[in-house]
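Progress narrative, work stream C.
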Amino acid sequence: MPESAEAQVKEALLALLKERDIQHITMKEIAEKAKVSRGSLYLYYEDKFSIIEDVIEDMKEGLGKALFDAFSHMDTLHLNKKRQTVHPTLSFVHEHRSFFSVMMNRGHFHRFFRDVFQQDVLLTPVHVNLTPIEREIYGHYRALYTYAIILYWLNEDAAATPEAISQKVWELVSQKRFYWLFGQAVPGEREKDKQIDRRVVRTREALQKAFLDVLAEKKDYAAITISDITRKSNIRRATFYDHYANKEELLQTMIQRSCAEIIDHLTIASSPNEFSLKEAEKALASLLSGLSKMPIVHFLNREWGVPHVIPDMLKALESFYLHQQTDIHAEKKLYAHYVSSMIIGLLLYRLDEGKTHPPEVLAREFLQFLDVKKYKVVLL
């Protein structure tokens, strides 16, 4: 297919994705929008999914090249020497805004950035002395908060220029401290849970356990039915609908429950800036140790196709951080996006490459990234 026609096909699909999900788009519609024949379209693409995969691979390659080219001439990236008025990641997003506007709010799109940053596109040219564990943590950490910063830009400050967002990011990163991960309890958050009848609690717990059991058996969220859940829990179908409108509501409830458990580990009695590094390491290690018992572990399994987990986790954690009284001069919503994504990046690493490392080691290594005195590097 000529390059011009290929570009038209990709642009046509992105335009249609602005209107509806890919499941409801046909190859006929793509061909008509791109002004190419269906026969020509099928010569080069098996189906609509192969087109979007092609688009995504083009974007991964493009972003990786943009980052490498931008930093290949540097020995190090000093926080106190802002060498660029706009970060190359944000320049690339701005240049390809139609793609990112369509894709960013899709459930598993954080993996796009993980795949890009696995290539060491920044650390290859930049001479930064990181241990193997630090490099692994860095990939998840950087991918997730880049994803969160772009989400913030497109959803919260869409009119801002890449230069303006870059300036906000430089300002935020230059202030970062390890104690940002922690906060004080948000008043009223747990009050409604205490008021629920115990019989209702038992029924919901049984349905949630059944849902996890069925997910573990089928290993495919889309294949789970309400009948599967009610049979496994030995609870009537009508009773299920007394508590949840559908399996999506059940899933969302369980994600929120897991997020509440995560937040419990990050909640402290004192002011965060009075929290010592040793106390922070202990609290973070406790979270990593308890992670395997949380339902969220199953939902984060990328092979099982559970939708919207990362976006829902970001919302819950952001709410916690937005309620904190901070002395941060940068935009507070950007701070909430940034810190929430760091936590999720760490959890994803723990469930992936980090399984073999003791929680105490991971907690200590991760907190080092939040000490700008150790790494004079802009980690974006």
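Work stream C, second folded protein:
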Amino acid sequence: MLVRAWAAMHGFGVQRNKRWHGTCEASGKQIIRPIMNLPHTLSAEFVATKPPPPRTLMHGVILGSFCLGFGLVLAITDRLTLADIAARALEDRQNSLSQVIPAGIHDNNPVTDTLLMTDARDKEITVYRARKAGRVTGVAYEIYGTGYAGEIKLMLGIAADGKLLGVRVLAHKETPGLGDKIEEKKGDWILRFTGLSFTDPPPERWKVKRDGGQFDQFAGATITPRGVLGAIRGGLEFFAANKAKLTEGS
């Protein structure tokens, strides 16, 4: 009503072509009066100059403050947890390497003594080097095989003379009770490779017995050990092809 009256007073689109007809109760005479009609929409100038309600401005300020505060909390939390995450990752890496690189063959920290290389498939490999008195005594790096349920991730340790120091499974999705026997805690199958090399047995014998190789498969699970053996053979081939660079400084 206030907007209608204001518009009428200032002449915004007011129409006076309509009339109201009525009768005066006192005299009985007919009365005709003009009616001012307000159009459905006001002019663009009037709408543009109308200030926003104070409550809308307050809501915007509150929402903006909330978003700013939430962003600051996330940034602070990220900074506080970043160091902790890095420390845990370093600890996990050290634990993995300690299983394939004996403590007695190095006096350095293999986690921080690394070498970045690429394999025959142009895949980057981070090599962790063990040193004693400055000489490279062994190396370790991750290898990958394909099992029944997907990728199998392993850590392979090799001495400077090419003999296996150890192989351990880092991650897999194999069937519990069957394929998971590749884990050390589930059996000793993974331990039998220690001391072997690329030529002992010959490369063509790095297979399960069902495929004409030297190593046992699991009862009811051949694909999993086949994938592990393929990964180990590939890791030994990588060492043989890059021994000079891997053991540089020995």
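The chain has two domains: 1-53, 103-246. No further action is required on this item.
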